[in-house]
Amino acid sequence: VSSINFTPLHDLDGTITPNGLCFERHHSGVARVDPAQHRLMIHGFFDKPLVLTMEDLKRFPRQNHVYFLECAANSGMEWRGSQLNGCQFTHGMIHNVMYTGVPLRLGLEEAGIKPEGKWLLAEGADAAAMTRSIPMEKALDDCLVAFKMNGEALRPEQGYPVRLVVPGWEGNMWVKWLRRLEVGDQPWHHREETSKYTDLLADGVARRFTWEMDAKSVITSPSPQAPITHGPGPTVLTGLAWSGRGTIPRVDVTIDGGITWHEARMDGPSTPKALHRFYYDFEWDGKPLLLQSRAHDSTGYVQPTKNALRAIRGENSIYHNNGIQTWAVDAD
Ligand code: MTE
Ligand code: CO
After folding, report:
1. Are 146 and 178 in contact (CB under 8 A)?
2. Whole-prediction pTM value?
3. How far is the first Cα of the chain from the last one, in angstroms, to the nearest whole number?
């Protein structure tokens, strides 16, 4: 079964997503994989193709990194207009986890990549056999072959016993139940990089290989599922911001629909390609509000309005909607 559920962002604080609250996206159900039977095959343009057991994998030097995973389709229902009432549904296809794993580079170097090897194919052991082409430059940069999340074993829903971590890039490439890595000299043009996960523009041309997740933010509270429950007076506004290209040094917040903007207070860890937490503490006068947040990332990129995005990308897209989200608060 193709299925999806959503991270309850409105109920969370800080930046780490607890394992049991991570959203799940399965193109063909949750695979049940016996770690003792599982093998990771590394083949193609290599000097010595490898077949690794989980025990083999755990003998490579490992690292810990916190990264967000955002599905390319997160906020995808909102391209043509607002549809969903709550940040769990508009923005909840994201989680932020500390992964323990082996740098993918180490596995590839162990097998000895031939000079012709320019692309990597990653394949999952589920019924969907999820397959994506990844340029070698990224594979050798910061990708991880991960077997732990927030310290414990990956959950079956998150790819137990092993998944690929592709920091800052669309969630679809983070292949779960990873069973095969093939190196070739060109991309494979599989279903998930042709018919799906491409961005159809107004003129009928589809943007392809739009891997990086652009800077984005959302106010998690107040929001439709987390309304203000007190009267006028001190009020805490909070939200999340992230960028697939680096950190978030700054978030702006408005409570009057963009007439006046205020710099939010960042609080908590700031590491590249991970969620950042922001706060704006204000005195509510009891009148209606229009809440928005706008992320700035470490490359200088500023999160656009939805209308600015629509002007460039049209309204056919599902993927990569990083536009500014508005929540309306009524006096009551
Ligand atoms: N890997 C496999 N093998 N099968 C899948 O269906 N779904 C992809 C990706 N990796 C998928 C997969 C998609 S579309 C996303 S957004 C992420 O996994 C979701 O990861 P999660 O379930 O840990 O949230
Ligand atoms: Co996805």
Report:
1. no
2. 0.97
3. 42
Which residue has the CA at smallest separation from atom 21 of ligand 1?
24
Residue that is written with structure tokens 């990844």 in the block: 134
* 2 — pLDDT class (breaks 50, 70, 90): confident
Query: Is pLDDT of 1 > 70?
Result: no
Instruction: Give phi and psi for 146, each to the nearest 5.
Output: -105, 140
Q: Which residues line ligand 1 (CB under 6 A)?
A: 22-27, 69, 71, 95, 124, 126, 128, 130, 157-158, 171-172, 174-177
Smallest-distance ligand from the CA of 26? 1
Q: Distance, CA 20 to ligand 1 centroid (Å)? A: 16
Query: Can you tell me which residue has the tokens 């929540």?
Result: 327
113-159 tens-digit pLDDT: 999 999 999 999 999 999 999 999 999 999 999 999 999 999 999 99
Helix, strand, coil percent content, the chain, rounded in steps of 5: 15, 35, 50
In sequence order, the 6+-apart residues with CB closer than 8 A to the CB of 65 are 98, 99, 142, 144, 165, 167, 271
**Residue 19 half-sphere exposure, CB side, CA atoms within 13 Å?**
15
Query: What separation in Å is there between the alpha carbon of 173 and the centre of ligand 2?
Result: 8
Q: For ligand 1, pick from 5, 26, 213 the residue to mutate: most ligand atoms within 8 Å of CB.
A: 26
Kindly report, residue by residue over 185-206, the tens digit of the pLDDT: 999 999 999 989 999 999 999 9
Residue nearest to atom 11 of ligand 1 (CA): 26
